[in-house]
Specification:
The protein contains 12 helices and 11 strands. The chain has helices spanning 9-20, 25-32, 36-43, 52-62, 101-113, 136-151, 173-181, 189-192, 204-218, 239-251, 274-283, 289-296, and strands at residues 2-5, 50-51, 70-74, 114-119, 123-131, 156-159, 165-170, 219-222, 231-235, 260-262, 266-271. The protein has a 4-stranded antiparallel sheet with strand order 4-5-7-6. The protein has a 4-stranded antiparallel sheet with strand order 8-9-11-10. The protein has a 3-stranded antiparallel sheet with strand order 2-1-3.
Length: 302
Protein backbone atom coordinates (compact mmCIF):
# COMPACT_ATOMS: atom_id res chain seq x y z
CA UNK A 1 0.00 0.00 0.00
CA UNK A 2 1.07 3.57 -0.65
CA UNK A 3 0.25 6.73 1.28
CA UNK A 4 -0.83 9.96 -0.36
CA UNK A 5 -0.53 13.03 1.89
CA UNK A 6 -1.89 16.51 1.30
CA UNK A 7 0.24 18.51 -1.10
CA UNK A 8 3.47 19.60 0.57
CA UNK A 9 3.14 17.35 3.63
CA UNK A 10 5.17 14.45 2.29
CA UNK A 11 8.12 16.80 1.83
CA UNK A 12 7.49 18.35 5.27
CA UNK A 13 7.56 14.93 6.92
CA UNK A 14 10.80 13.89 5.20
CA UNK A 15 12.60 17.17 5.98
CA UNK A 16 11.32 17.13 9.55
CA UNK A 17 12.87 13.71 10.14
CA UNK A 18 16.11 14.65 8.35
CA UNK A 19 16.62 17.90 10.25
CA UNK A 20 15.43 16.66 13.64
CA UNK A 21 17.88 13.77 13.60
CA UNK A 22 20.69 15.63 11.77
CA UNK A 23 20.71 12.92 9.11
CA UNK A 24 22.45 13.18 5.78
CA UNK A 25 20.34 12.05 2.84
CA UNK A 26 22.35 8.82 2.71
CA UNK A 27 21.79 8.17 6.43
CA UNK A 28 18.08 8.89 6.20
CA UNK A 29 17.78 6.60 3.18
CA UNK A 30 19.40 3.77 5.14
CA UNK A 31 17.11 4.37 8.11
CA UNK A 32 13.92 4.11 6.07
CA UNK A 33 15.17 1.57 3.53
CA UNK A 34 15.26 3.54 0.28
CA UNK A 35 18.06 4.66 -2.05
CA UNK A 36 19.13 8.23 -1.23
CA UNK A 37 18.88 9.40 -4.85
CA UNK A 38 15.27 8.17 -5.03
CA UNK A 39 14.57 9.76 -1.65
CA UNK A 40 15.89 13.17 -2.72
CA UNK A 41 14.59 13.37 -6.28
CA UNK A 42 11.34 11.42 -6.13
CA UNK A 43 9.96 11.23 -2.58
CA UNK A 44 11.13 14.58 -1.21
CA UNK A 45 9.92 16.32 -4.36
CA UNK A 46 6.58 14.45 -4.14
CA UNK A 47 6.92 12.90 -7.57
CA UNK A 48 6.01 9.55 -6.00
CA UNK A 49 3.82 8.58 -3.08
CA UNK A 50 5.46 6.78 -0.16
CA UNK A 51 4.88 3.18 0.85
CA UNK A 52 3.07 2.34 4.08
CA UNK A 53 6.32 0.86 5.43
CA UNK A 54 8.33 4.02 4.72
CA UNK A 55 5.53 6.21 6.09
CA UNK A 56 5.49 4.25 9.36
CA UNK A 57 9.28 4.57 9.73
CA UNK A 58 9.19 8.31 9.05
CA UNK A 59 6.30 8.79 11.49
CA UNK A 60 8.21 6.93 14.21
CA UNK A 61 11.36 8.98 13.63
CA UNK A 62 9.42 12.26 13.64
CA UNK A 63 7.35 11.51 16.79
CA UNK A 64 4.49 13.40 15.08
CA UNK A 65 1.24 11.84 13.83
CA UNK A 66 0.68 12.85 10.22
CA UNK A 67 -2.44 10.68 9.79
CA UNK A 68 -4.74 13.71 9.66
CA UNK A 69 -2.89 14.83 6.54
CA UNK A 70 -3.50 11.56 4.65
CA UNK A 71 -5.67 12.00 1.57
CA UNK A 72 -5.94 8.33 0.63
CA UNK A 73 -4.23 4.96 0.67
CA UNK A 74 -3.51 3.25 -2.63
CA UNK A 75 -3.14 -0.41 -3.47
CA UNK A 76 0.31 -1.09 -4.94
CA UNK A 77 -1.10 -2.77 -8.06
CA UNK A 78 -3.60 0.01 -8.59
CA UNK A 79 -1.19 2.90 -8.34
CA UNK A 80 -0.86 3.19 -12.11
CA UNK A 81 -4.43 4.46 -12.35
CA UNK A 82 -4.33 6.31 -9.06
CA UNK A 83 -7.41 4.58 -7.71
CA UNK A 84 -7.73 2.41 -4.67
CA UNK A 85 -7.80 2.80 -0.97
CA UNK A 86 -9.03 5.84 0.85
CA UNK A 87 -7.84 6.21 4.39
CA UNK A 88 -10.45 5.30 6.95
CA UNK A 89 -9.47 8.03 9.40
CA UNK A 90 -12.68 10.09 9.31
CA UNK A 91 -16.39 9.80 8.86
CA UNK A 92 -17.61 9.98 5.24
CA UNK A 93 -19.23 13.11 3.84
CA UNK A 94 -22.37 13.34 1.71
CA UNK A 95 -21.19 15.08 -1.46
CA UNK A 96 -24.66 15.55 -2.98
CA UNK A 97 -27.65 16.66 -0.93
CA UNK A 98 -30.42 16.60 -3.55
CA UNK A 99 -31.32 14.17 -6.37
CA UNK A 100 -30.90 15.29 -9.97
CA UNK A 101 -31.22 14.05 -13.55
CA UNK A 102 -27.43 13.77 -13.73
CA UNK A 103 -27.30 11.61 -10.62
CA UNK A 104 -30.17 9.45 -11.91
CA UNK A 105 -28.29 8.89 -15.17
CA UNK A 106 -25.12 7.94 -13.31
CA UNK A 107 -27.13 5.47 -11.20
CA UNK A 108 -28.36 3.90 -14.46
CA UNK A 109 -24.81 3.74 -15.84
CA UNK A 110 -23.51 2.03 -12.70
CA UNK A 111 -26.44 -0.40 -12.60
CA UNK A 112 -25.54 -1.26 -16.20
CA UNK A 113 -21.76 -1.48 -16.44
CA UNK A 114 -20.45 -0.26 -13.12
CA UNK A 115 -19.95 -1.28 -9.53
CA UNK A 116 -19.09 0.13 -6.13
CA UNK A 117 -17.13 -1.66 -3.43
CA UNK A 118 -16.52 -1.14 0.27
CA UNK A 119 -14.12 -3.49 2.00
CA UNK A 120 -12.57 -3.72 5.43
CA UNK A 121 -9.43 -1.68 5.86
CA UNK A 122 -10.76 1.40 4.08
CA UNK A 123 -11.10 0.12 0.52
CA UNK A 124 -13.66 2.20 -1.39
CA UNK A 125 -13.95 2.46 -5.15
CA UNK A 126 -16.26 3.07 -8.07
CA UNK A 127 -15.49 1.37 -11.37
CA UNK A 128 -17.31 1.68 -14.70
CA UNK A 129 -16.20 -0.37 -17.68
CA UNK A 130 -16.87 -0.78 -21.38
CA UNK A 131 -15.36 -1.78 -24.70
CA UNK A 132 -11.99 -0.03 -25.10
CA UNK A 133 -12.78 0.76 -28.74
CA UNK A 134 -16.56 1.07 -29.10
CA UNK A 135 -17.22 2.75 -25.73
CA UNK A 136 -14.03 4.79 -25.40
CA UNK A 137 -15.57 8.10 -26.44
CA UNK A 138 -18.62 7.54 -24.22
CA UNK A 139 -16.60 6.62 -21.14
CA UNK A 140 -13.86 9.22 -21.42
CA UNK A 141 -15.77 12.14 -22.94
CA UNK A 142 -19.16 11.73 -21.27
CA UNK A 143 -19.25 9.43 -18.23
CA UNK A 144 -15.92 10.53 -16.72
CA UNK A 145 -16.78 14.27 -16.86
CA UNK A 146 -20.26 13.47 -15.52
CA UNK A 147 -18.81 11.84 -12.39
CA UNK A 148 -16.17 14.52 -11.96
CA UNK A 149 -18.74 17.32 -12.18
CA UNK A 150 -21.22 15.63 -9.84
CA UNK A 151 -18.71 14.92 -7.07
CA UNK A 152 -15.94 17.46 -7.78
CA UNK A 153 -13.37 14.66 -8.02
CA UNK A 154 -10.91 13.26 -10.53
CA UNK A 155 -11.39 9.86 -12.17
CA UNK A 156 -8.69 7.80 -13.83
CA UNK A 157 -8.80 5.40 -16.76
CA UNK A 158 -7.11 2.06 -17.35
CA UNK A 159 -7.17 -0.35 -20.27
CA UNK A 160 -7.08 -4.07 -19.56
CA UNK A 161 -3.78 -5.65 -20.57
CA UNK A 162 -5.19 -8.63 -22.45
CA UNK A 163 -8.72 -7.85 -23.61
CA UNK A 164 -10.73 -4.94 -24.96
CA UNK A 165 -11.94 -3.56 -21.63
CA UNK A 166 -11.56 0.04 -20.59
CA UNK A 167 -12.15 1.07 -16.97
CA UNK A 168 -12.72 4.46 -15.41
CA UNK A 169 -12.08 4.36 -11.68
CA UNK A 170 -12.05 6.42 -8.53
CA UNK A 171 -11.15 5.37 -4.99
CA UNK A 172 -13.04 7.79 -2.77
CA UNK A 173 -14.90 7.13 0.48
CA UNK A 174 -17.23 10.12 0.13
CA UNK A 175 -18.28 9.20 -3.41
CA UNK A 176 -19.18 5.66 -2.34
CA UNK A 177 -20.99 6.90 0.77
CA UNK A 178 -23.04 9.29 -1.39
CA UNK A 179 -23.95 6.63 -3.96
CA UNK A 180 -25.02 4.26 -1.18
CA UNK A 181 -27.11 7.07 0.34
CA UNK A 182 -28.98 7.36 -2.97
CA UNK A 183 -29.77 3.67 -3.19
CA UNK A 184 -26.79 1.78 -4.63
CA UNK A 185 -25.53 -1.09 -2.45
CA UNK A 186 -21.86 -2.02 -2.61
CA UNK A 187 -20.62 -5.40 -3.76
CA UNK A 188 -21.84 -7.90 -6.34
CA UNK A 189 -24.91 -6.49 -8.10
CA UNK A 190 -26.42 -9.88 -8.92
CA UNK A 191 -26.02 -11.18 -5.36
CA UNK A 192 -27.48 -7.93 -4.04
CA UNK A 193 -30.36 -8.20 -6.55
CA UNK A 194 -30.09 -4.47 -7.25
CA UNK A 195 -32.91 -2.33 -8.61
CA UNK A 196 -33.67 1.18 -9.79
CA UNK A 197 -33.89 3.20 -6.52
CA UNK A 198 -37.35 4.34 -5.46
CA UNK A 199 -36.52 8.06 -5.58
CA UNK A 200 -35.96 7.87 -9.33
CA UNK A 201 -39.65 6.97 -9.81
CA UNK A 202 -40.62 10.32 -8.29
CA UNK A 203 -39.88 12.17 -11.54
CA UNK A 204 -40.23 11.35 -15.24
CA UNK A 205 -37.04 13.31 -15.88
CA UNK A 206 -35.17 11.09 -13.39
CA UNK A 207 -36.63 7.97 -14.99
CA UNK A 208 -35.66 9.03 -18.51
CA UNK A 209 -32.12 9.84 -17.42
CA UNK A 210 -31.74 6.53 -15.56
CA UNK A 211 -33.10 4.51 -18.48
CA UNK A 212 -30.70 6.29 -20.83
CA UNK A 213 -27.82 5.31 -18.57
CA UNK A 214 -28.97 1.69 -18.49
CA UNK A 215 -29.44 1.34 -22.25
CA UNK A 216 -26.28 3.27 -23.09
CA UNK A 217 -24.34 0.66 -21.11
CA UNK A 218 -26.31 -2.63 -21.23
CA UNK A 219 -28.40 -1.90 -24.30
CA UNK A 220 -27.98 -2.19 -28.04
CA UNK A 221 -29.52 -1.03 -31.30
CA UNK A 222 -30.14 -3.65 -33.97
CA UNK A 223 -33.00 -5.05 -36.08
CA UNK A 224 -34.47 -8.52 -35.92
CA UNK A 225 -34.82 -10.86 -38.87
CA UNK A 226 -37.24 -9.57 -41.46
CA UNK A 227 -37.31 -5.98 -40.22
CA UNK A 228 -35.55 -3.07 -41.91
CA UNK A 229 -35.45 -0.77 -38.91
CA UNK A 230 -33.54 -1.03 -35.59
CA UNK A 231 -35.02 -2.23 -32.34
CA UNK A 232 -33.78 -0.89 -29.00
CA UNK A 233 -32.63 -3.74 -26.75
CA UNK A 234 -31.80 -4.04 -23.07
CA UNK A 235 -30.00 -7.00 -21.50
CA UNK A 236 -30.16 -7.81 -17.78
CA UNK A 237 -29.51 -10.84 -15.56
CA UNK A 238 -30.77 -9.32 -12.29
CA UNK A 239 -34.39 -9.99 -11.40
CA UNK A 240 -35.10 -6.81 -9.39
CA UNK A 241 -33.45 -4.66 -12.05
CA UNK A 242 -35.53 -6.33 -14.78
CA UNK A 243 -38.71 -5.72 -12.79
CA UNK A 244 -37.96 -2.08 -12.06
CA UNK A 245 -36.81 -1.48 -15.65
CA UNK A 246 -40.14 -2.86 -16.90
CA UNK A 247 -41.99 -0.69 -14.36
CA UNK A 248 -40.04 2.39 -15.45
CA UNK A 249 -40.75 1.80 -19.14
CA UNK A 250 -44.45 1.31 -18.43
CA UNK A 251 -44.50 4.50 -16.34
CA UNK A 252 -42.95 6.39 -19.26
CA UNK A 253 -45.48 4.92 -21.68
CA UNK A 254 -43.23 2.46 -23.55
CA UNK A 255 -44.25 -1.05 -24.49
CA UNK A 256 -41.46 -3.63 -24.24
CA UNK A 257 -41.39 -7.29 -25.20
CA UNK A 258 -41.47 -10.17 -22.73
CA UNK A 259 -38.09 -11.04 -21.28
CA UNK A 260 -36.25 -13.63 -23.33
CA UNK A 261 -34.23 -15.50 -20.71
CA UNK A 262 -31.37 -17.69 -21.93
CA UNK A 263 -28.61 -19.23 -19.82
CA UNK A 264 -25.82 -18.44 -22.27
CA UNK A 265 -26.78 -14.95 -23.41
CA UNK A 266 -28.75 -13.71 -20.44
CA UNK A 267 -32.16 -12.03 -20.41
CA UNK A 268 -33.15 -9.34 -22.88
CA UNK A 269 -36.15 -7.30 -23.89
CA UNK A 270 -36.73 -4.75 -26.64
CA UNK A 271 -38.74 -1.81 -27.88
CA UNK A 272 -40.01 -2.90 -31.29
CA UNK A 273 -42.98 -0.63 -31.94
CA UNK A 274 -42.05 2.14 -34.40
CA UNK A 275 -44.01 4.75 -32.49
CA UNK A 276 -42.25 3.87 -29.25
CA UNK A 277 -38.83 3.76 -30.95
CA UNK A 278 -39.36 7.26 -32.31
CA UNK A 279 -40.60 8.40 -28.92
CA UNK A 280 -37.49 6.96 -27.25
CA UNK A 281 -35.18 8.68 -29.72
CA UNK A 282 -36.93 12.04 -29.22
CA UNK A 283 -37.52 12.00 -25.46
CA UNK A 284 -34.63 9.90 -24.08
CA UNK A 285 -32.08 9.37 -26.87
CA UNK A 286 -28.52 8.09 -26.40
CA UNK A 287 -25.28 9.55 -25.10
CA UNK A 288 -23.25 6.53 -26.20
CA UNK A 289 -22.26 7.23 -29.80
CA UNK A 290 -21.92 3.53 -30.64
CA UNK A 291 -25.74 3.34 -30.47
CA UNK A 292 -26.22 6.55 -32.47
CA UNK A 293 -23.83 5.32 -35.15
CA UNK A 294 -25.72 2.04 -35.36
CA UNK A 295 -29.02 3.90 -35.55
CA UNK A 296 -27.76 6.12 -38.38
CA UNK A 297 -26.95 3.09 -40.53
CA UNK A 298 -30.66 2.47 -40.97
CA UNK A 299 -33.32 4.50 -42.70
CA UNK A 300 -35.39 6.73 -40.40
CA UNK A 301 -37.96 4.83 -38.37
CA UNK A 302 -41.35 5.86 -39.78
Amino acid sequence: MRIRLKKGYQRKLILLVKNKNSFTWEKLGREIGVVSNYLVNELANEKRTISRQVYNKLSKLSDINFDKHIVNILEENWGRVKGGKLANFRNPKLLIKQPSKELAELIGIILGDGNIWCKKGGYYYLRICGDSEKDKEYLLDYVKPLVEKLFNVKMYSKKHKTNRELFIVIGNKDVIFTLKHFGLPSGNKKKNNVKIPNWIFESEDYLKACIRGLIDTDGSVCPITGRDYPYIWFTCNIENLRNTFKKAMKTLGFKTSKWNIQKTRGADTYIGNKTDINKYIKTISFKNRRHLNKLNKFAPVV
